[in-house]
Design goal:
Blueprint lengths: L2 H7 L1 H9 L1 H13 L11 H11 L4 H6 L3 H8 L9 E5 L14 E5 L6 E4 L7 H13 L18 E5 L11 E7 L10 E6 L6 E5 L10 E2 L15 H12 L4 E9 L2 E8 L9 E2 L1 H10 L5
Antiparallel strand pairs: 1-4, 2-3, 2-4, 5-6, 5-9, 6-7, 8-11, 9-10
Length: 296
Amino acid sequence: MDKTLKNIVLTPMNFLYKINPKIGLKTLYFMKYFSKLNIDNPKTYNEKLNWMKINYRNELMPLCADKYTVRQYVKEKGCGEILTKLLWEGFNAEDIPFENLPQKFVIKVTHGSGNNIICKNKNELDKNRTIKRLNQWLKQKYLPCYGEWFYGIIKPRIIVEEFISDDHLNIPVDYKVFCFNSVEGINGAPVTVIDTDRFTTHKRKVYDDTWQELRNIRINFPLDEEKEFKKPDQYEEMLNYAKILSEPFPHARVDFYIMNERLYFGEITFMSDAGFGNISPKSFNEKMGQWIKLPD
């Protein structure tokens, strides 16, 4: 659904959430799945994420939710070596020094989801259109009805990062590592998801922490029946970084890329799919919920 249309459709839900957050989240969930969301006595993964929206506050979450300030958090956790190179940051797209940028780079708005511009050839980039899009994205705000209070606290800005790719300019595979502070050792990240065909049919592969594919598990997208991925040589390293970066939180999803045998940090997400993901079978939704130990 177009973002503008989505904002209009969900306007009543924004008002309901402001009046009563719990009822607002329950109503939104029922509209999506025609089933009840138990926030008072949460058991499933989705229920516990929505409980946390209302009851859990951590001052690090706004910092980690912003694509610029999270870089400082990653450095403070001793993981700065996995950050991509920052080429520029600022609050106005008209200030981007295109003439000083390399031929390939990535432009991001730090508070958005999917608001990225991947430039593989600067000579082919429509700079005026790019500036207009970025300044429009800066004005976008997260919908209050989803309850993700940690977005929008940090003033959004634009960042330009190096473009990491192989010699064929392929976009690297995105590894999404689900971490739970109740699970010890390497099993602190018992689920890793790989998204495929993100810009077309969007499918997923789901693995456990020994890289065994969980073919009967669905997390918001259908299974990719065709593609196969071998266990990365950097997988244990990836899980270790994920554990370090997720350590202060009951749950976090930490995303990574691997390119030219080097591991890169992507982002940290606290409410995967905003706590409204379609997880099946239900028993796995409940199992993921068991891995989240809620604070008092």
